């Protein structure tokens, strides 16, 4: 029998794989975890997930599904308010799968801001602002504090409460999140748990920008980390404490650093950060500035960004994953009408 025939025979047998089973381990305690709800998901080509079945781990942390697998599947586990996701390797037997969960903590030491980047893209009538927070959890516990949130951020009043929030945890699975209004005006918080490893939170919103000039005002709420500001070539930025760090070679985007907690940047001109190798896509700049959607894989192996050269490299990677222009109609409804208020104050 030829090797090709053997491979075809094995492929035919793939849908006939035995039942799915595994063990859930609490990495905080190092012991099998009982009472964890595990969902078996079937993943479609368009990224949708269909729940095939659910099971709860026994006293030994074990779970079993009787279904045979046909296609790509994943496991989603829920424990102490956090969700854990992992794809089942399609070419391996789905037996003795190892699933990790973590205990939760309210200790703020588990949330360390490494990097905060502002992308400012002024158009003819509006300024598109994209923010990326890179937060590292160096512990073996999931940080979860519904009073103070995993992240608090300032939303300029000119945005009128409209902001898009996306969250990407260490499992590299993006999902839409929600900003909740706190008791402090213009300060919102996100309650998604921060799992051990690198977490990224992206914000997208727009504010008025008319006559080819305007002022962007914001302030830091979460302490720590490096703050960077990125703007298109040809746009002039001025502000106290704003330090020019260099230019990204491919896009010619300008990179600035600032250590200020209260930021006020005067902008003049307009433009969008675009990759010249995008070809026809670059011509879409005439439609207005864009909001980027950075895929999780970009950050998979990144360390703390040091200096302008490192940030320039990150920017080049980010621009590989642009998406279309944002308008207010695309954004979520105002926060006041969308979500209940969050409690607690920033200490």
Kindly describe this structure.
The longest helix is centred in the C-terminal third of the chain and has 12 residues, at 307-318. This protein starts with a helix and ends in a 9-residue tail after the last helix. The chain is mainly beta and 347 residues long. The chain contains 3 helices and 26 strands. Strand 6 and strand 7 form a beta hairpin. The protein is 8% helix and 42% strand. It has 2 domains: 16-101, Immunoglobulin-like (Sandwich), CATH 2.60.40.10; 108-338, Immunoglobulin-like. It has helices at 3-13, 307-318, 335-338, and strands at residues 20-26, 31-32, 37-43, 49-56, 62-65, 72-79, 82-87, 97-101, 104-105, 112-122, 126-137, 142-143, 151-154, 164-168, 174-177, 180-181, 187-190, 197-208, 213-219, 226-231, 236-238, 243-247, 254-258, 262-268, 290-292, 322-325. Mean pLDDT is 80; it is low at 6-16, 279-310, 316-341 and 343-347. The chain has an 8-stranded mixed beta sheet, with helices on one face. Strands 1, 2, 5 and 8 form a 4-stranded mixed beta sheet that branches. Strands 4-3-6-7 form a 4-stranded antiparallel beta sheet, with no helix packed on it. The protein is elongated.
List strands and helices in order, with pairings.
Layout: H1 3-13, E1 20-26, E2 31-32, E3 37-43, E4 49-56, E5 62-65, E6 72-79, E7 82-87, E8 97-101, E9 104-105, E10 112-122, E11 126-137, E12 142-143, E13 151-154, E14 164-168, E15 174-177, E16 180-181, E17 187-190, E18 197-208, E19 213-219, E20 226-231, E21 236-238, E22 243-247, E23 254-258, E24 262-268, E25 290-292, H2 307-318, E26 322-325, H3 335-338
């Amino acid at each position: 029998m030829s090797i090709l025939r053997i491979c075809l025979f094995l492929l035919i047998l793939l849908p006939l794989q035995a039942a799915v089973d595994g063990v859930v381990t609490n990495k905080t305690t190092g012991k099998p975890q009982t009472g964890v709800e595990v969902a078996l998901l079937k993943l479609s080509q368009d990224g949708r997930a269909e729940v095939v079945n659910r099971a709860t781990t026994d006293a030994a942390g074990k779970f079993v599904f009787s279904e045979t697998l046909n296609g790509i599947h994943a496991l989603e586990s829920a424990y102490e308010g956090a969700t854990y996701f992992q794809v089942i390797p399609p070419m391996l037997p789905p037996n003795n799968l190892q699933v990790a969960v973590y205990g939760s903590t309210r200790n703020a030491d588990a949330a360390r801001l490494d990097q905060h980047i502002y992308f400012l893209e002024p158009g003819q009538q509006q300024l598109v602002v994209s923010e990326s927070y890179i937060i590292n959890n160096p512990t073996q516990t999931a940080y979860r504090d519904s009073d103070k949130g995993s992240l608090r951020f300032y939303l300029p009043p000119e945005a009128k409460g409209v902001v898009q929030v996306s969250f990407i945890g260490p499992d590299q699975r993006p999902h839409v999140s929600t900003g909740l209004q706190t008791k402090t005006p213009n300060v919102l918080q996100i309650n998604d748990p921060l799992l051990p490893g690198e977490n990224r939170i992206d914000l997208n919103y727009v504010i008025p920008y008319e006559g080819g000039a305007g002022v962007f005002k914001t302030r830091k709420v979460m302490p720590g980390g490096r703050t960077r500001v990125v703007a298109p070539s040809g746009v002039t930025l001025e502000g106290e404490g704003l330090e020019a760090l260099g230019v990204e070679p491919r896009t010619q985007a300008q990179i600035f650093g600032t250590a200020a907690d209260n930021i006020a940047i005067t902008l003049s001109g307009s433009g969008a950060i675009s990759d010249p190798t995008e070809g026809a896509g670059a011509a879409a700049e005439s439609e207005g500035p864009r909001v980027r959607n950075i895929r999780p894989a970009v950050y998979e192996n990144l360390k703390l960004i040091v200096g302008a050269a490192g940030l320039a490299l990150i920017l080049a990677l980010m621009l590989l994953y642009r998406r279309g222009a944002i308008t207010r109609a695309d954004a979520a409804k105002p926060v006041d009408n969308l979500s209940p208020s969050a409690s607690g104050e920033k200490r």
